[in-house]
Amino acid sequence: MSEEKSLNFIEEIIENDLAEGKYDKIVTRFPPEPNGYLHVGHAKSICLNFGLAKKYGGKTNLRFDDTNPSTEETEYVDSIKEDVKWLGFEWANELYASDYFEALYQFATALIKKGLAYVDDSTSDEIAEQKGTPSAAGKRNQYADRTAEENQILFEEMRAGRYPDGSKVLRAKIDMASSNMLLRDPIIYRIKHAHHHRTGDDWCIYPMYDFAHGQSDSIENITHSICTLEFIPHRPLYDWLIEKLEIFPSHQYEFARLNITYCIMSKRKLLQLVTENFVSGWDDPRMPTISGMRRRGFTPESIREFCDKIGVAKRENLIDFGLLEFCVREHLNRISFRRMVVFDPVKLVITNYEEGRVEMMQSENNPEDENGGNREVPFSRELYIEREDFMETPAKKYFRLAPGQMVRLKSAYIIKCDDVIKDSAGEIVELRCSYLPESKSGGDSSGLKVKGTLHWVSVAHAVAAEIRLYDRLFTAENVDAAEGDFKDYINPYSLQVIQTAFAEPALSGSNLIDRYQFIRKGYFCLDKDSTAEKLIFNRSVTLKDAWAKEVKKS
RNA sequence: UGGGUUAUGGUGUAAAGGUAGCACUACAGUUUUUGGUACUGUCUGUCUAGGUUCGAAUCCUAGUAACCCUACCA
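Structure tokens for the assembled complex are given below, as produced in the milestone run.
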């Protein structure tokens, strides 16, 4: 059987907890804030949280962390649900931090009663000032001395809308001298007279992250609350609140977020790319968003495989984008239909092939799939081949077409180039070739072996298509570490459009879910911009190209 | 002389005192009607300096580096 895979540190913690009988079942959650679209970094978290529950027989909630009405929208909620589902996961419950606003308010009241929270009238500047710095302790102000009764009344009045935004906050009373800034009497409620996408105008005070997240975890009996490294300093506060509130003890564990070369993973920056029109939208195929990758033609299987391969640990990492591409190719190779499309055509005439004759050639849909079947490809006297597949004076080791040189036309005949026709500018306009009738695919009795095989499309049967080729969105390997503004590193050539490529007729019936390999070109899928009149294909990823490497070397 | 976290090939990630392994990348080859796929092989690594031990990536001591923490964001 398969060798047992080593556990990541979170799996180890869970297996220990389970072995000790700390829990019967584990409960995890995926807690996005609905203020942007999900990206591949979220995919890592989704695969982790849902994957753990699946592996250890537990469940996972989808919980929207919607405590800041000024940045959150229903559009984002909808996109997040769609993306999680598309990735192949099912949540046990669809929940919202805003469902708990009343419970959270009661928790705050409990803290006030215990003398562990107070209403502070200071301005935000004053609060920042009194907070000190990492190396200098903060100071408590006179508001911290208010009685529980006074705080209770003030907090009720805050809720009732008696005070304007920013005039008062509720703070936990912990330790202004703590070396952990988050324990220096953190703000847990602020006044925001803002319309919330779910609770409307019911509230004008909203809990802060630290007073919502852990409490929501606790309410849902989350056993393992998994987040990223930057929340490590929040853990003492997370634990403090649970302890003082005497509620279900959820525990927080932190792992390193995903970074990928030539990508940005900050929602703020991605939003900027969208609003400033550097890309066509959140689902632009160049975006590292789940919706972008979906439109690009990446499969959920390949993204899950990627998340599995990158592992889970606590050290900062920068994953090679090539690994994602590898996972995409690996899956697409198994499932995609092979088709022929010529991007940059040059006409090829087979002089000894009868005019008007058309043969339907059989070509396999997928050599990786024995049961994949064949499709028919029309062959005739006039064809298009790729301009780069001919060289008048061939480079060494070039085994494509050249004067006097023979190649096979994929699933058809072996041909030989006899003549090159140029226009007055010296541009090649036509290649005149002859074919070997006895070399037909499937019944080749020519005895000849040729090194090159070319893809082709019959001129008379060609279907026009637009092709969109994508390259990395940024020119810097580590965009976040690069000097200056990230927008300075946007790759101006990240999108290249081929207006008119020529496709074999089988492609005319394409639909959005089909995946293709355009032979010798790469993996492609239909774009949603396609119409009945116009086919548009996105390149998901190129094929590995040994010849390109060879050329680069010299 | 603030606190916290992390250091293993080019990139990730394993090894819980006992052969430094796996994947990607790179390179070389075999097969091939895709210069694809598949297959085979090769290169490259324990942050530094001491110490404990028969034996250290792992334990101890002292350094070094990177990242995080001073939002009424999450």
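The first strand of chain A starts at residue 27 and ends at 30. The first helix of chain A runs from residue 9 to 19. Further analysis is deferred to the final report.
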